[in-house]
Write a structure and sequence with these properties.
alpha+beta; Membrane-bound Lytic Murein Transglycosylase D, Chain A; ten-stranded antiparallel β-sheet; two-stranded antiparallel ribbon; globular; 3 helices; Glucose Permease (Domain IIA)
């Protein structure tokens, strides 16, 4: 009898042990494992990455200096060239731009030739050679000699010859014969609007070189920009047909376009004169008519 009870107790203990072991396995709890040795991996969180330093935009060191321009939203090199009185291709070269279509707001661009000096007022000065005078014998002299007393006066001319073009007066003519639609207003209209019919000729107002011919400047339609010297540009907008190409030399009175209404609500020519990039009233420079 005691033997049976002993065996029964043993089996009871064994069964209870199995049940307890099963319960322990269902809890899913495992004893913590600690790795040691050279292959142990640290589980400490990495520190937050430090913010990368902001790279300054090209030319930022020249911001605010005379002769430099800070790019604003909506700017293009064509517009910057018009506003500064320069050929946009020169801006590309002076600033070492790989892609003229990629300029960034805040970028600072050189808008005067590297050889030019710029005063604090923004006026550009360039080295000028000493003037020379050609005496009657054809020799060149650096000083002016008084004319001989016996020199005969020049014969009077019925119609005085037009003055030779100068840096401050290229001798502009009207680019078309149409009536005036709108005059110059520095805030609202940076030039003159002249009437005409589609296809009417548009001529160069003075000798010059084409620095832009295309439709890349919003609000101007098919546009031509001529550079006449280091001081003056002229612009001819809203044409239906352009007859010249960039870098082409043109003569005063040469037909360069046909009037149209590109980017305009009517057929007209919008004509601007810019002095060192600043729009000025063309009527101050054009002859009376």
């Amino acid at each position: 009898m005691r033997g049976l009870q002993g065996r029964s107790g043993w089996w009871t203990v064994a069964v209870l042990g199995l049940l307890l072991a099963g319960c322990a396995s269902k809890t899913g709890r495992q004893a913590p494992v600690e790795e040691r040795g050279p292959q142990a991996v640290s589980v400490a969180a990495d520190p937050a990455p430090s913010a990368a330093p902001i790279k300054p935009l090209p030319g930022a060191e020249n911001a605010g200096k005379p002769g430099y321009y800070t790019v604003k939203p909506g700017d293009t090199l064509i517009r910057i060239g018009l506003e500064s009185g320069q050929n946009w291709r020169d801006l590309v070269r002076w600033n070492g731009l790989d892609n003229p279509n990629l300029i960034e707001v805040g970028q600072v661009l050189r808008v005067v030739p590297p050889s030019a000096t710029v005063a604090e007022s923004g006026a550009v000065s360039r080295p000028v050679g000493s003037p020379t005078v050609t005496p009657s014998n054809g020799a060149t002299s650096s000083s002016t000699k008084p004319a001989a007393a016996t020199a005969a006066p020049a014969p009077a001319s019925a119609t005085p010859a037009p003055a030779a073009p100068t840096e401050d007066d290229p001798g502009f003519m009207w680019p078309t014969g149409g009536a005036l639609l709108a005059g110059f207003d520095e805030a609202k209209n940076k030039g003159l609007d002249l009437a005409g019919k589609a296809g009417d000729p548009v001529v160069a107002a003075a000798d010059g070189r084409v620095v832009y011919a295309g439709a890349g400047l919003r609000g101007y339609g098919n546009l031509i920009i001529l550079k006449h010297n280091n001081t003056f540009l002229t612009a001819y907008a809203h044409n239906q047909l352009l007859l010249v190409k960039e870098d082409q030399a043109v003569r005063k009175g040469q037909k360069i376009a046909e009037m149209g209404n590109s980017d305009s609500d009517r057929v007209k020519l919008h004509f601007e004169i810019r002095r060192q990039g600043k729009p000025v009233d063309p009527s101050r420079y054009l002859p009376n008519r």
